[in-house]
Task: structure prediction
Amino acid sequence: MCLVITSNWVPFLFPVSPLSQQQFTLTLRVVDVRNPAVCSPSKSSSPTEPSSDDTTTTAVWNPTLAVNWYTRAWRLKERGTWLIHKHLDHNKPTTLDQHGVLYRPIWAAAFACYSRALQLTTLARWANETFARRETNPVCGDDDRPCALSKDEADSTRPVDLDQIEDLATTDPNVSSISAMKHLEFSLLLNLALCQLKVGSSESAVQNCSQALHLDPGWMEWATDHQTDSSCSTDRSPDGSAITSVEVAKALHRRAQAYINRSKWDEAAADLKVAVRLQKLAGSQAGLSASETLLAHVHKQMVLDQTVLANRLRKHRQLF
Result:
């Protein structure tokens, strides 16, 4: 006969004397299991590649995933912007908080929203671009079923409600969806740079602005080609770009601010000159005034640095 001892987690069997006719119940609390016993031998199976004969949903690309990522990224962007407007626009920094130390948690929270949104929109854009290339130039010998490209029919000027089914389109693809994702990615990079400027991380702000400008390098070439033509209109983007000249000028202005914080006057002046040129062509008076004011400040600092350097060289020569 055996004495059966049970617990809430693991049963235990202990042999007892055949003369014993009593059954006991004992409750044990297992704190840690360092070497759990193997209940049954594991059956190893080699992974198989998906083929066109598979009927499972994991064997094909789900076209709604990219749209879902994009809409969630948009909502996170709206959330980060709401945090800034809610807590900063109505509560200006006081004289006791001149450096904005009390508002750094707000910028950090907005940065977290923008950062996660950037991950989602980058993933969505990569997926759409990858499968668009596969549809245009199919790989020879690829027997997988064709992958559908997602389409984004959501209005880019309003926030998307994830609780509404109609905001997640499942119809045929449209090339403009990739442009919309690139535009959202551009805006998120600029928002990240703004948050980093507010907390004093100028080097990271420069990197994010540069990455945003690399999304559409045609604008920089376009501005260089039209630097002497003040009558050229910027109503249309070069090569059908989804990013406008005003947005590119904003990225250059923000990167110039980061350069100024690091006392890189030459780089800041170069960015501001291109920003002023783009804003003049686009007719953006508010942005033009801000860029011209900042450019004048940069030129003043450059002259001041040159004067200080000349005085130091003069004193150094007098010693010899």
About this structure: Confidence is low (pLDDT under 50) at residues 1-10, 35-42, 140-176. The two ends are 107 Å apart (CA to CA). The chain has two domains: 63-92+101-139+146-199, 220-320.
